[in-house]
Design brief:
The protein is mainly alpha-helical. The chain has helices at about 1-25, 30-55, 65-125, 150-155, 170-175, and strands at about 140, 145-150.
Length: about 180
């Protein structure tokens, strides 16, 4: 009976070593899993040698060896739980990295939009308030008290450009001999 229990402990220890070796392939930090796998394999080798010695001598296994079986079971459960926990942590880290990358891209897009809006604001010039305009000649008084033609004032204070033309009433008033066709 003791031999069966002891062999079960060796098998559990070997399975823990296999789980740790599988984690080495998947985990981002490989050294802890390598150490767990190596220590598990060393325990399996020592316990197998001890079992062979007891069987060769025909002696029953000591109670301390049964206690090592309990330790092997606990070790196996610990490795299995750590494996699951580290896998979840690793997946969480991957998800976090993806979220950070998406956030970085969104921030870059936002900065680009802010720059575009700032450029648009710089290009916009608006006139606000009350503009004093002469009721006779229609000139506009600026902040320094000078009277300016409407087109010159607007050109200086906005992005507007002007081309000159005449409305039909002014053509009739200024050039009565001219008859448009």
């Amino acid at each position: 009976m003791n031999e069966t229990v002891y062999i079960l402990g060796i098998v559990l220890q070997a399975v823990a070593a296999i789980i740790a070796m599988l984690q080495v392939r998947q985990a981002p930090r490989k050294l802890p899993w390598l150490l767990i796998a190596l220590s598990s394999l060393l325990i399996v080798a020592r316990r197998t040698a001890t079992l062979e010695q007891f069987m060769a001598a025909g002696r029953p296994l000591a109670t301390a060896e049964v206690l090592t079986l309990v330790i092997s079971v606990l070790f196996f459960l610990g490795v299995a739980l750590m494996s699951k926990m580290f896998r979840e942590v690793w997946q969480g880290q991957q998800s976090l990295r993806q979220s950070e990358a998406a956030l970085g891209q969104t921030e870059a897009e936002l900065r680009s939009h802010v720059e575009q809006l700032q450029q648009a604001v710089e290009q916009v010039k608006t006139l606000r308030g009350i503009l004093p305009i002469c009721s006779g000649c229609k000139r506009i008084r600026d902040d320094q008290g000078y009277w300016n033609q409407v087109d010159a004032y607007l050109r200086a204070h906005t992005e507007a450009e002007f081309s000159h033309s005449m409305c039909p009433e002014c053509v009739q008033r200024l050039y009565p001999w001219f008859q448009p066709t």
